[in-house]
Amino acid sequence: MTTPPTADTAAELADALTRAMKRIRRQTMHRLEPYGITPAQARALRTLAHAPGCGEEAGAAPMRLSDLADRLRIAPRSATTVVDALEDADLVSRTPDPADRRAVRVVLTDAGRAALDRIGRVRHEVAQEYFEPVSRAEQEALLRALRAAEAAYESAPPTGRPAGR
Asked: Which residue has the higher pLDDT, 2 or 19?
């Protein structure tokens, strides 16, 4: 049985995670800039790539714009803005939903798949550089701890936290 961290340790861990994420995000944003891709656009492309109908699965319908907003946990209008920029860059295309004329589905283009490869390489490089000083065993222990914390958070009743978070 493990002992829970003290309040000071938990707060320090939260602060360290926040700093790490800011540094990783800033470096990723800097490296994606030459490709004209923002972090929000990268998240949307990665989300679309893992959605049924947007990847290689045959027969599945592409993701609706409203579902993309839900998965990204952003307002539908914000998702529209992100998709507008991705469409202008020819990274996605919109298609009408055959089941609902009011709905729009979003599909990755070949250029969007190529952008995903670049995004993946950048994310990998930044993560490798940031965690290089940390041993493989420590990285694996940190990953296990964060997965356990996330699983406990997701399974706990939603008291005191926003719905869906």
From this structure: 19
